[in-house]
Amino acid sequence: MEKCEFRACFRSLFVVEYKCYIKFQYMAGTTMDYKKYGDTYYVRMDRTDEIISGILKVCKKENIQSAIFNGIGGCSEAQTQIFVPETCSFEKQTIHGMLELVSLTGNIVSDNQNELYHHTHAVISYKDGDQHLISAGHIKSLTVLYTAEIELRPVVGGLITRQFDPETGTGFWRFL
Questions:
Q1: What domains are there in the chain, each with its CATH number?
Q2: Fewer CB atoms < 10 Å away: N or C end of the chain?
Q3: Which residue, 108, 100, 106, is CA-closest to 148?
Q4: What distance in Å separates the CA atoms of residue 24 and residue 10, rounded to the nearest whole number?
């Protein structure tokens, strides 16, 4: 019964704001969970979880040094950045509200000191007044509004590491 009411809450998020708040308080005790099937990890993240740090946490706990991942979900905040080659800098944007995480894709690699790095891109849809908008690009962080579902696939039979490139100031894949 609670589950149906919870879904109904999101269908009419702006109409039943108070009811949604109560349901969020009910869900606030839940935490990220994951399960391994075969070589793949399936990760469920819940309200207020930060997606990138959650993926990195699973990788550290499971000793995953290189992987690819994808996912979908609903978010409350997204920090995106787009690289501007002319200035060698990132333009940043932060979006708040009911955000649909339409597509999330990325990879995890490690450096020579086994430090983990992510390279993540996403497409996010949202409303601003009467307009339906899309934001896409490199992701700095994503905060879950109600749930996110991530598929994490470690590299099997090899290792991909990060090799720093001084010309661009970033890291590229190196295959071991």
A1: 1-30 (no CATH), 31-175 (3.30.1330.80)
A2: N
A3: 100
A4: 11
Can you state the percent helix, strand and coil of the chain, rounding each to 5?
A: 20, 60, 25
- Tell me the mean pLDDT in the region 36-57: 97
DSSP state of 56: H
Cα 168 from chain centroid (whole Å): 25
- Cβ pair 52, 142 in contact under 8 A: yes
Q: For the segment 13-23, what is each residue's pLDDT rounded down to a tens digit?
A: 333 333 333 34
Task: Tell me what pLDDT residue 33 has.
Answer: 96
How is residue 126 written in tokens? Answer: 């949202």
The rounded distance, in Å, linking the Cα atoms of 51 and 34 is: 13
- Rounded Cα distance, 31 and 150, in Å: 14
- Residues 68-81 have a mean pLDDT of 97
Q: What is the pTM of this model?
A: 0.82
Going by C-alpha positions, the residue among 12, 11, 9, 7 that lies closest to residue 20 is: 9
Give the residue ranges of DSSP H helices in the chain: 2-11, 17-27, 51-61
Report the mean per-residue pLDDT for the chain.
85
First-to-final CA distance of the chain:
51
Cα–Cα distance, 76 to 38 (Å, whole number): 32
